[in-house]
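Retry 2 of 3 after timeout on previous attempt. Resubmitting structure tokens to design endpoint.
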């Protein structure tokens, strides 16, 4: 490990320790980039809320969407916890009588499952599909044992196991939609699962490529120098140091509305989250799927959001070109940001998802 790698590893470690301290214990003000407010201290891995009706952040966020998308006591999903290993995975469930298919929603790094329920869960249930929106470990209301480390490969395994569980209940075809980083997660799980009829996502990011890191990671040139050191530090206690997501990723581009963005940043279970160096290491260095899995890839839909400033269309090109062209569908969604709240964009998104499911749900 060279001097630059040592420096950046030490720098991010110190930053992580400082950012993890309660604000009232600080003798100096924190830069705005950490997005920490007076009433927020280090969030626990296990959330204090039992149900989303107790959590204020998503309720503030949904007010920026049209009234027809907002959830209330009449149309909220059923909430339950699914036991998986040492975790209690929170699930938003929209049951539908005589459903045409099952749709599993997975969020990205700056959102959680309830956001997915708002933008896709409710509309897809109204269209006749049974929907499950998951809170990944470390996010939303999912309960995580603080004594167990969470890595990206655990997300892949968890999603794969959930798919298998649902497939064994009935014969309904299963589809996955992933937002942002959830797109590649959906692909990593769906490509190795024979029960998945199709994978959909707003982006499919190969973080091994420098041009992809440039658009998605803050201080990407520093990260490129840091990556070998980060790999080394992942085998030491340093891996447990938690960094603000906003320090590592360009989360400020999540939604194209300043006030809505602020509600996400104040939420310690979504954009205001802190993740360990070990998790970031596992996320950046996750091994691509095998060539055999690519040969058996399910049909894929990429919904490109026209006004996405975080993951523009070109960052998907390298990965998309590696797939079978006949199995890939790309749809441009106008008037939509990275996390779409724009009515026109949402309507086109719903239309594209429904068309894709209907094309592939029959044997």
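Retry 2 succeeded. Sequence:
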């Amino acid at each position: 490990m060279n001097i630059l790698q040592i420096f950046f590893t030490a720098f991010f470690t110190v930053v992580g320790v400082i950012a993890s301290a309660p604000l009232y214990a600080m003798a100096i003000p924190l830069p705005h980039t950490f997005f920490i407010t007076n009433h927020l201290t280090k969030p626990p891995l296990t959330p204090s809320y039992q149900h989303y009706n107790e959590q204020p952040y998503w309720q503030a966020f949904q007010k920026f969407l049209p009234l027809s998308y907002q959830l209330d006591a009449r149309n909220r999903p059923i909430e339950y916890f699914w036991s998986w290993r040492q975790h209690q995975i929170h699930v938003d469930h929209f049951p539908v009588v005589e459903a045409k298919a099952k749709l599993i929603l997975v969020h990205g790094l700056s959102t959680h499952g309830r956001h997915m329920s708002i933008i896709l869960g409710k509309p897809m249930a109204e269209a006749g599909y049974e929907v499950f929106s998951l809170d990944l470990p470390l996010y939303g209301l999912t309960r995580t044992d603080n004594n167990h480390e969470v890595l990206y490969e655990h997300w892949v395994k968890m999603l794969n196991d959930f798919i298998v569980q649902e497939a064994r209940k009935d014969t309904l075809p299963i589809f996955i939609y992933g937002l942002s980083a959830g797109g590649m997660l959906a692909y990593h799980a769906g490509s190795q699962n024979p029960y998945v009829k199709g994978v959909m996502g707003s982006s499919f990011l190969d973080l091994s490529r420098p041009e992809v890191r440039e658009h998605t990671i803050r201080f990407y040139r520093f990260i490129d120098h840091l990556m070998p050191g980060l790999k080394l530090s992942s085998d030491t206690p340093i891996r447990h140091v938690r960094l603000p997501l906003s320090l590592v990723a360009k989360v400020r581009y999540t939604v194209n509305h300043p006030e809505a963005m602020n509600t996400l940043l104040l939420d310690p279970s979504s954009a205001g989250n802190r993740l360990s160096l070990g998790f970031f290491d596992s996320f950046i260095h996750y091994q691509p799927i095998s060539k055999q899995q690519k040969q058996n890839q399910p049909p894929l839909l990429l919904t490109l959001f026209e006004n996405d400033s975080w993951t523009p269309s070109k960052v998907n090109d390298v990965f998309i070109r590696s797939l079978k062209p006949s199995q890939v569908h790309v749809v441009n969604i106008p008037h939509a940001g990275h996390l779409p709240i724009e009515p026109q964009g949402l309507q086109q998104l719903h239309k594209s998802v429904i068309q894709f499911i209907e094309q592939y749900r029959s044997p």
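Attempt log closed. The two ends are 53 Å apart (CA to CA).
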